[in-house]
Amino acid sequence: MVTTGKKVKTFIIDGKDVSGTEDQTVIEVCRENNIEIPTLCHLEGLAEVGACRLCLVEIKGSNKLLPACVTKVHEGMEVITASEGLKKYRIKILELFFSERNHICSVCVSNGICELQNLAQRLGMTHVHYPYLFPKFDVDASHERFVLDNNRCILCTRCVRVCDEIEGAHTWDIMGRGIESMVITDLNKPWGESESCTSCGKCVAVCPTGALVEKYKNAVDKSFMYKKDKLKFLPYLTTMREVKNEQS
Predict the structure, then answer these.
(1) How confident is the model over 244-248, as a mean pLDDT?
(2) Which comes out higher in pLDDT, residue 1 or 168?
(3) Which pTM does this prediction carry?
(4) For a designed S-S bond to 143, which of 19, 126, 162, 192 qualifies (C-beta 3.0 to 4.6 A apart)?
(5) CB of 54 within 8 A of CB of 66?
(6) Which fold has domain 8-82?
(7) Contact, 79 vs 14, CB < 8 A?
(8) CATH number of the domain at 87-247, out of 3.30.450.20, 3.30.70.20, 3.40.630.30, 3.90.550.10?
């Protein structure tokens, strides 16, 4: 942890004395201390948006739960990241994700390598208590290499942020409200007609659910998704983020 020119704050997480710099968030300090907090929208190297709300934590003195990814640390704060109440909230959030779109794991190309599916298994979600909405989104296969399926999208905006902040293209954005919200390219043009897309594949690599997939490889052996670990993609994002901060 680099502390040059930054004030160090000492506080408590789950009964453990920890420290972090004034510009760090709770989730960053948790990661440094091997304290696990579930999340789907957080990705090291990208700006935080607090979209998924899975990283909600309890902070002493606050009458509401706060997202760890956008909550800055302060001196003397006491944080609880794991409790029965938080577990129930997180399972409810996961159930809402599953009920809002068409996440049918048995026929999904990302079955077995999906972050949403993995979290549901890890947190002990056994079934969905809410009615399934089953929206009908068209699948955009107009791009020569990739496919967009908004039926599997959880609106984490990873693709939007990596395209904007790392690639500098800002091909992606969000359109609509509520259940009608969806990721789009170039003011809702078909992906294959995008004038800004560089076809770099970063958006596909960071997608947690398979809403964005490589057209051929992923349909056959899912090899593109496994490249996220093999190519050490996250450290690359972090490095690019640091370079951008130094230049700004």
Answers:
(1) 64
(2) 168
(3) 0.86
(4) 192
(5) no
(6) Ubiquitin-like (UB roll) (3.10.20)
(7) yes
(8) 3.30.70.20
